[in-house]
Amino acid sequence: MKEEERILCLDYYEHGIVVHALNALRNDLIGEKRPTDAVDDLLLKTIEAPYQKHKRRSHHEAR
Predict the structure, then answer these.
(1) Containing H/E element for 44?
(2) Rounded to whole angstroms, how far apart are CA atoms 5 and 15?
């Protein structure tokens, strides 16, 4: 069975919020002495996510 992927487009500000929220969750889990493996993996994926350049139309292009 094929695994589904979801693509989430975030701007710089939103990306920062997600990274900080995951890091706060990770710190809480460490404080509670609970495993952080899933959050660690997701945090690394979020930090290392590639940028996507948006194609922009020129002013002379028809809409």
Answers:
(1) helix 37-47
(2) 18
